[in-house]
Fold:
Amino acid sequence: MPSAVPLPAVPALPVRAGPWVPGLMGAALVSALGPLGGCSAGSAAAVAAADPAPTPPACRALLRTASDWPALPPLAAEVARRSALPVQSLAAITPRLFALTLQAADPAACSAALARLGADPGFALGVDPDRHRTRPAAPAASTSQ
Structure:
């Protein structure tokens, strides 16, 4: 039986607390792999710098409709028409309950759009703002020491 050959130590990847951030984790992976990953340390910095720009706050709501909507595209068009804002996402929870996100510039525009959306009881039985909280971004590593 051949004897075991010790493997070289592999540096541990840093664990980031909080939400998954692909750019930073990708950069950490590239720097840890070094030449094995086929990338130089300079491209690791480029990956970290390529994080997307911050998006405006989302106008999310739960919509209860008066009738069933089996298809989402016609409902998305109707929501956009009634709210006067573009629909960013729409997901069916049940045939009469939907989670939606509108593209609003600020909280006042969001509130006005949700009020317009719920104005017709023949269309919407209820429009409730989605109050799920999101975690704030973690501080930079240089300021958290």
The helical segments are 22-33, 41-49, 72-83, 107-117. The first strand starts at residue 59 and ends at 65.
